[in-house]
Amino acid sequence: MMCGGLSGPAHYRGRIDDERDLRLGWTEHALGRWRELGAPAAAGRVSRLDRGWSTVLVSLDEPPLRMRNIGADVAVGDFVVVTDDGERVQEVLPRRSAFVRRASFEGNRAEAHTIAANIDVVMLLHALTSPPNQRRLERELVLAWDSGARPVVVLTKTDLVDDPTAAVASLQDVAPGVDVRVASGITGDGVEELRGYAAGNASIALLGASGVGKSTLLNALVGHSRQATADVREGDQRGRHTTTASELVRLPGDGWLIDTPGVRAVSLWSSGHGIERAFADVFDLMDHCRFRDCKHEQEPGCAVTDAIEAGTLDPRRLESMKRLVAEEAVLEEEQRAQEKALDRRGVRRPKPKP
């Protein structure tokens, strides 16, 4: 499932005789299930969600369909089969990747919220007009690696700073093996390089807090004014939400972009190998500790504490990793407790999608 950015998107590369518009970025996962269902004509990709309604693209040459999501766990970017009457989503086809976080309100902590599906690259946006936030980026990287997509860090608003070098270096320190790019949606600096990640009908998702310049960058990537933008506050450079719904947007030439509303809190869901990938430098050191059960505190022969004492590892990075591991353990316990409660009430939970 993980692409890791090493071999390109796993899109369908066979013959174009499936009667599908492959420009939509159809994946092998989705096409395989579509064929098992008898290759129904009413199948396409979700381009927008609005309060229980899905907008579905069947082809770039046809008007989109609009239908209800009754009983379907649908996200923007999903490939779906539509009922014969065209009124609702019948089945969500297997996802190649999904960007998932914990539901944002307290009463629903043990529920997942899928932000985007079938994405190849997650661009994590941070504005150069604010101090680099290493701890937020670490959280975002855990989610991105777990999604199955390739993370790319993008520092926006280069037009408003004299020299981005220090900010780039700061975020590179906590993003081992991840591309860190700079761009400006106003001047166009770096935009063409970012658009290159969507080559071959790949899909990019933009994720960032409100005010980091997502809508401005989206407009630059698309080549015209697609999203409204808003000024940031003078005091703290924070912006207002200008994206109110996730949406799949066609890029010039080929490729897709998924814009998401600003995410104020980056809440973990459940990690597969996301923490290991996001903290690869720390885990590499842990492999060299004398004891397998080393807690990286006062044990002799601890490669992690040795690196901290030598100044090659920031101690805040180790503490951040420990907090995320502990947070994940609490969340997993909450999920188990909820599953038991639902089992006692006889409620059947939906099976997680691939």
Describe, in plain words, how this protein is organized in 3D:
Helix 3 (165-172) links the parallel strand 9 and strand 10. The chain is globular, with a radius of gyration of 21 Å. It has 3 domains: 22-92, OB fold (Dihydrolipoamide Acetyltransferase, E2P); 98-259, 3-Layer(aba) Sandwich (Rossmann fold), CATH 3.40.50.300; 274-345, Orthogonal Bundle (Ribonucleotide Reductase Protein R1, domain 1), CATH 1.10.40.50. It contains 9 helices and 13 strands. By secondary structure, it is α/β, with parallel strands linked by helices. It has helices at residues 28-36, 134-147, 165-172, 191-195, 214-222, 274-278, 280-286, 303-310, 315-345, and strands at residues 43-50, 53-57, 65-68, 79-82, 89-92, 98-102, 112-117, 121-127, 150-156, 179-182, 203-207, 247-250, 256-259. The longest helix has 31 residues, at 315-345.
Write the layout of secondary structure elements.
Elements: H1 28-36, E1 43-50, E2 53-57, E3 65-68, E4 79-82, E5 89-92, E6 98-102, E7 112-117, E8 121-127, H2 134-147, E9 150-156, H3 165-172, E10 179-182, H4 191-195, E11 203-207, H5 214-222, E12 247-250, E13 256-259, H6 274-278, H7 280-286, H8 303-310, H9 315-345
Parallel strand pairs: 8-9, 8-11, 9-10, 11-13
Antiparallel strand pairs: 1-2, 1-4, 2-3, 4-5, 6-7, 12-13
Biggest sheet: strands, sense, closure?
6 strands, mixed
Q: Evaluate the radius of gyration.
A: 21 Å
- How far is the N terminus from the C terminus? 9 Å
CATH-defined fold name of the largest domain: Rossmann fold
Count of helical stretches: 9
Number of beta-strand segments: 13
Within CATH, the superfamily of the largest domain carries the name P-loop containing nucleotide triphosphate hydrolases
Gross geometry: globular
Strand order, sheet with most strands: 10-9-8-11-13-12
Name the helix and strand elements from N-terminus to C-terminus, one letter apiece. Answer: HEEEEEEEEHEHEHEHEEHHHH
Mean pLDDT: 83
Helix fraction bin:
25-40%
Return the CATH class of the largest domain: Alpha Beta
Task: State the low-pLDDT regions, or none.
Answer: 1-9, 12-17, 232-243
- What is the percentage of strand-forming residues? 15-25%
Derived from helix and strand composition plus strand pairing, the structural class reads alpha/beta
CATH architecture of the largest domain: 3-Layer(aba) Sandwich
Q: What number of structural domains do the residues give?
A: 3
